[in-house]
Amino acid sequence: MTTEKAATTAITVEAVVEQQGQNPLVRIDAVMVRVNGESTTAWHTNMMPAGDGSYLLYLHHEMRKAASVSVGDVVIIDVIFDAAYRNGPLHALPSWFEGPLATSPTASVNWQRLSPSRQKEVLRYFAGLKSDEAKDRNLERVMRVLEGANERFMGRDWRDGA
């Protein structure tokens, strides 16, 4: 299959928009493949294993707003292969985080346990920090949650290092 052909192949799913924590999502556990279907504007998002054989397809605010959908609505999802996507963090581990992380075995293990998308989210957030004060403040908070403190950081509840 050529890249051009793969980019237009889609999987169509009918599902209910659910909510897990603060995240609206569609649970994908049974799919039908639609070959040669017409594509519409596509959004980049993460599809993560749920741990039970199904996948979670996260629907961010702009995606839901553009489609005028909310939690509880039934939607039709076209999952389109993006041959140009390159996974992995877009931002390097900053040295001001890397050093303290290496000195805390608990934080280091919990950092490695985070999903790649969660690590990417933290690194993207850190890349936007400008002042030394902001870096210091966020370093203290991320180290606390990675060492097991149960508190909120980056708009979510952290429990036992994750």
Protein model, in words:
The structure is a single chain. By secondary structure, the chain is α+β, with helices and mostly antiparallel strands. It folds into two domains: 78 residues, no CATH class; 64 residues, no CATH class. Helices cover 36% and strands 25% of the residues. It is built from six helices and eight strands, in the order αβββββαβααααββ. Strands 1, 2, 3, 4, 5 and 6 form a six-stranded antiparallel beta sheet that branches. Strands 7-8 form a two-stranded antiparallel ribbon. Strand 7 and strand 8 form a beta hairpin. The N terminus is likely disordered.
Number of strands: 8
Q: Uncertain spans, ≥5 residues at pLDDT below 50?
A: 1-8, 32-39
**Overall 3D form:** elongated
SS summary, helix count: 6
Order of helices and strands: HEEEEEHEHHHHEE
In which range does the helix fraction lie?
25-40%
Mean model confidence by pLDDT:
78
Approximately what portion of the residues adopt beta-strand conformation? 15-25%
**Whole-number tally of structural domains:** 2
Radius of gyration: 19 Å
Amino- and carboxy-terminal Cα gap: 39 Å
Category from helices, strands and their pairing: alpha+beta
Main sheet characteristics: 6 strands, antiparallel
